[in-house]
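Example complex used in Figure S2.
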Amino acid sequence: MLRVDPIQEGIVLDHIKAGLGMRIFQELGLAEKGLPVALLMNVPSTKLGRKDMIKITGVLDLDLTKLGLLDPGITVNYIRGGAVVRKVKPGLPERVVGLIRCRNPRCITSTETYVVPEFVLVNPAAKEYRCSFCGERLRV
Amino acid sequence: MRAETALKGRSFINALDLSPEEYEALFRLAEEIRHRPGDFAEACKGKLLATLFFEPSTRTRLSFEAAMLRLGGQVLSVADPQTSSVAKGESLADTIRTVAGYADLIVIRHPKEGAAQLAARYSPVPVINGGDGAREHPTQTLTDLYTIRTLKGRLSHLTVAFCGDLRYGRTVHSLLRALCRYPGIRFFLISPEELRLPEPLREELQAQGIAYHEMEQMEEALPQADVLYMTRVQKERFFNEEDYLRLRDFYVLTPERLQLLRGDALVMHPLPRVTEIAYAVDSDPRAVYFQQARLGMYARMALIASLLGVV
Ligand SMILES: [Zn+2]
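Predicted assembly (451 residues):
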């Protein structure tokens, strides 16, 4: 099997749904950070069958809201001295400020573009959010 | 603390922003004002209400202005946004912050959905939503609830029949949701297939276990209804003229149909009326739509006084 050396200091994004790794890699702008990064795809997983993983060496401030929105099943492992020191499962964020825009053409945020869009989670099972301004529902 | 004083400084953007208890406090205050108007004639002395109407609605604006003037307050109006700074590209946020510097309370009506919410976020003074797009018109709901509460004596254990355009009628959606919070409510939903209540709303009713019956003609519902809420069926909602002409007459309240209605029932309408209620119905004591408009003014007086904290 393909091997990537364990990292000493950094972050491992685990349990990424197979196929989403590339998108997350791009959304987080990892290619531009100048850090050694490995994207592993279709890794065998006992939990998921197949999963993607991203290993990042070095210190990086991750946007957990964005990560949770992209893939609520993801696990973020913070590594120090070769060991996991903190494990975070961001899950679906309750509130999303910025990041996504309302699709309702009659929404005030479509014309008053200085307004930062805001969404509130209304149905976690359906990944459904509601625009805090016009009330329009949106599936992410 | 009186419940209405808890409303001080708040905005009223969505009909469900207020709890049934807060509505009840407003109804009690509105009743006090209606019966003893002299006691409130100077309640808002020295206060200024700004009405910002980005689309015309003479009826709503007059109701708010009458309410403020009867409380002894004064009114500042932007009647024609086409000639105002908005037409010159000023943002809504800037307009609101400027006006909030002059006024103690703002009423906004705007064609975009969520505009009142945005205004409330930027305004240091309370904002009342006078209608934003197709979404919300909460003071109409306040008016409707107050009318039923006053003329039926209760908001629970009622059979309410909505008739006409149930698909696009925001007053219907909003009143329906507000009524769901009271026990023993049952609905008759009378509309052509094309103008049925939207599915998400029907799902909401089902999820809450609210009894409702949908029908295409009103005859079956009339003998059982405590309230008949009529709405306009607009021609432009139909794909073709034939359908409109074929269906239009089913949704007109005539003196003959009125006879099917119980003696203590109410006929309500958010106004303006076009053809959906025959003029011959107006003189019937059950036809309360003009009374409803007048009660709406008292309800708005109670709301204004409560948000300003002058009671
Ligand atoms: Zn929106």
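Residues A 102, 104, 107, 109, 131, 133-134, 136; B 114 surround zinc ion (CB under 6 Å). Strands of chain B lie at 48-53, 74-78, 105-110, 127-132, 159-163, 186-190, 211-215, 227-230, 266-268.
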